[in-house]
Automatic annotation (TrEMBL):
It holds the Pfam family LamB_YcsF. Signal peptide: none annotated. The lineage of its organism: Bacteria, Bacillati, Actinomycetota, Actinomycetes, Micrococcales. This is 5-oxoprolinase (ATP-hydrolyzing) subunit A. InterPro entries: Glyco_hydro/deAcase_b/a-brl, LamB/YcsF/PxpA-like. It comes from Arthrobacter globiformis (strain ATCC 8010 / DSM 20124 / JCM 1332 / NBRC 12137 / NCIMB 8907 / NRRL B-2979 / 168). CDD domains: LamB_YcsF_like. Gene3D superfamilies: Glycoside hydrolase/deacetylase. GO terms for biological process: carbohydrate metabolic process.
Length: 243
């Protein structure tokens, strides 16, 4: 759906689909190999089993089913990482699952429990919310994600994709929002208010039209603003050192 190879020239960490909403064994193999070649940190991007809807539709799953689906997908990507002599550094739930773990404590606990059992040092990538709290309670490292091309509600959740304006397409607006989010810790909501936000990492969607050029613009403007771009583990290590 997007030019993954070109995006890997720009990003420092990659969320890799594990087959449930996108991706397949050949794609995972090739993407992990390219990440290793370029020094890009590898993250699992598990989702609801929703190939038809690209993981962006809600499914009525139990928390146990969510946990097992996450384990299954993480295991698949981990195998390719091991084959290429590396490991999965972080986990970032995708799409509708990613939205729901921010607000549903049972889903958040399911993902956090899976992560803690898989690797106590596994970074959990999440919006500020239930998953971030559940991961912190289990003493997992947490990276708070700022989403550059999505509109935020006043409560910090994302505007549902079915609503107009949920996805921001203006490159200049995305760049401006991202720099402000990272450098000032604020993002404007659809209500017109400023929302305090922590952005340890910035998420860009690879299927957005013009994603590669947009990623280049965002990176360039962040660097112009004095931001050092680094893999997520390095960012969190530097943050802990300052704290």
């Amino acid at each position: 759906m997007g030019d993954d190879a070109a995006l890997l020239e720009v990003v420092s960490s990659a969320n890799i689909a594990c087959g449930f909403h996108a991706g397949d064994p050949d794609i995972m193999h090739a993407t992990v190999a390219e990440c290793v070649r370029r020094g890009v940190s590898i993250g699992a991007h598990p989702s609801f089993p929703d190939l038809r809807g690209f993981g962006r539709r809600a499914m009525d799953l139990t928390a146990d089913e969510v946990r097992n689906d996450v384990l299954y997908q993480f295991g698949a990507l981990s195998a390719f990482a091991a084959y290429h002599g590396t490991s999965v550094a972080h986990i970032a739930p995708h799409g509708r699952l990613g939205n729901l773990v921010a607000t549903r404590s049972d889903y958040a606990a399911a993902v956090a429990d899976a992560a803690a059992r898989l690797n106590p040092g596994l970074i959990v990538l999440a919006q500020d919310g239930e998953l971030a709290s559940a991961a912190a309670e289990r003493q997992l490292p947490v990276g708070i994600v700022g989403i550059a091309d999505r509109a935020y509600e006043a409560d910090g959740t994302l505007v549902p994709r079915g609503r107009p304006g949920a996805v921001i397409h203006d490159p200049a607006a995305i760049v401006e929002r991202t720099v402000r989010m990272v450098c000032e810790g604020l993002i404007e909501t659809v209500a017109g208010t400023d929302l305090p936000i922590i952005a340890d990492t910035v998420l860009l969607h690879g299927d957005t039209p013009g994603a590669v050029q947009l990623a280049r613009q965002v990176r360039a403007e962040l660097e112009n603003a004095g931001v050092t771009i680094a893999p997520l583990a390095q960012v969190l290590a530097a943050k802990e050192k300052v704290a």
